[in-house]
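Researcher: Next entry in the queue.
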Amino acid sequence: MDRPTGRLVDVLEWCPGTTVGPEDLQDRPTLVGLAADLLRGLDQLHGLGYAHGDVAPRQRARAVTAGAPARLIDLGAASRLGEDRGTTSGVLSFAAPERLEGAPPAVATDLWSLGALLFWLLHGRHPYPSHPSPDGIDGPPSRAGLAADPLDPWLDRLLEADAARRPHPRPPRWRAWRRPRGNPSRSCRRRS
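Model: Structure for this entry, 192 residues:
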């Protein structure tokens, strides 16, 4: 809380590093590791009841320390899950189709955006080059001229036009480890 004004403020961790592009991904383990880091980040954010709202190329970072996890950055478009703020913000070409039609942020909208981001990282181009377009999205992305990849079926599930057909997240487990059991002051002490 900002004491002079009495307003609540968000305090975020500083994440040193650079954004990651297709040119930075030299091998499959790097891409899979990045995807896992971003999914963990979204899972944690969703478990707290928030949607990122702007999963796009400029919104991810790789920590400078080798082996450190990648981070989703810039929560400026984040909002409570299902809360309609009346606008769609962020990088519109990476916004889920239903967000462009006015649907509130949801886990499914973040997953579609993540699928578009991972497709871009893997194949070097957006899955739907004309998105956002008034015609909408019908079917899986065109892969004309692209080499097939074992991750393509998984990306197709994330990029489903129908949000109900995208993968369903597992129930959040964050509450189990956030609530201290017993006396909270004793649970934080170091054992000698």
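Model: The two ends are 35 Å apart (CA to CA).
Researcher: Noted, moving on.
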